[in-house]
Structure formats: structure tokens, C-alpha cells
Design brief:
It contains no helices and nine strands. The protein has strands at about 20-35, 40-50, 55-60, 70-75, 80-85, 95-100, 105-115, 125-130, 140.
Length: about 150
């Protein structure tokens, strides 16, 4: 299992991958640029239409969202940034089980980027899966979105 400061480099996955009635959605994006820090805020939603709750384990506090990463691309589609949601979280000493209930589960995910990002428009995508769940651990991606 990955620690909170580690992320696996996910494979490039197709937009809006689905598996057994589970889908991942990026409902809104906001980018706040500062001199030394850029915040990417994403309204992310899991839709669990599998017919049952899904379970996993995490060592961080984001539960069903800990296995996700943000991917930033410039206007040409070139990847210019990537960060796992758990990269800026403190881990617990032990693994914590979580449940993703049926239906919609939403959360605002915040990604601080300390390295400079290129000026100009960015496209944002969320990729990953349910950490600690073998069947749904990866292979999910939202459609790319421009900030609001």
C-alpha cells in the first residue's frame, strides 16, 4: 500500500473509464494562482451504481478520494503537472477501512502546486481509483475540464 507521501505513476487512461457501475466525475475546477503557490480546487464525485457499497483501506483522511491524482495539461495537450491527492496529507499509523456507499459521494479536493505552472489556459483531469480495493484500484478518469 502507498504511504501518504507516495503515489504510483498511473497509466494514461481513457476519459471517463467505467467498471461495473462505478464512475468518476469532475464537476467543477478552479485555479488560484499566487506568487509561490497555485491551488487547484476540484469538485469530484464518485457515482457508485454497482448495487452495493464498495470497501477499501487507506492510511490518509480522504478515504474514497485518496487514490486520485490531478493531471494538468496545457492548450496543446502536453502534461505540465501531476499530483496525487495524498501527497500533501499526513498518514495515520494504521490502515483505516472506508466504505463508498451507493449513489453519489462528493468532495472538494485541493491540490497545492509549489512548482511553477505555465501561464495560459490549463485543462484539468482527475485519474486513479479506490485505494485498497483490488477491483476498483485504478483505471478511472474524468473528462478534462477548464477552470470556471
Amino acid at each position: 500500500m502507498l504511504g501518504c507521501a507516495e503515489t504510483a505513476e498511473p497509466e494514461r487512461v481513457a476519459d471517463q473509464a467505467t467498471s461495473g457501475g462505478l464512475t468518476l466525475h469532475l464537476d467543477a475546477v478552479d485555479i488560484e494562482r499566487g506568487e509561490d503557490l497555485t491551488f487547484i480546487r476540484c469538485d469530484v464525485r464518485w457515482e457508485n451504481d454497482t448495487g452495493a457499497p464498495l470497501h477499501g483501506d487507506t492510511t490518509c483522511g480522504g478515504a474514497a478520494f485518496d487514490g486520485l491524482s490531478v493531471v494538468l495539461r496545457d492548450a496543446r495537450g502536453t502534461e505540465v503537472g501531476r499530483q496525487g491527492y495524498i501527497e500533501h496529507q499526513s498518514p495515520y499509523a494504521e490502515s483505516i477501512p472506508f466504505t463508498l456507499p451507493e449513489g453519489a459521494t462528493r468532495r472538494e479536493l485541493r491540490f497545492p502546486f509549489f512548482e511553477p505552472l505555465p501561464d495560459g489556459p490549463l485543462e484539468v483531469q482527475i485519474e486513479g481509483g479506490l485505494i485498497g480495493n483490488a477491483e476498483h484500484a485504478n483505471g478511472y478518469a474524468t473528462e478534462s475540464r477548464s477552470p470556471r
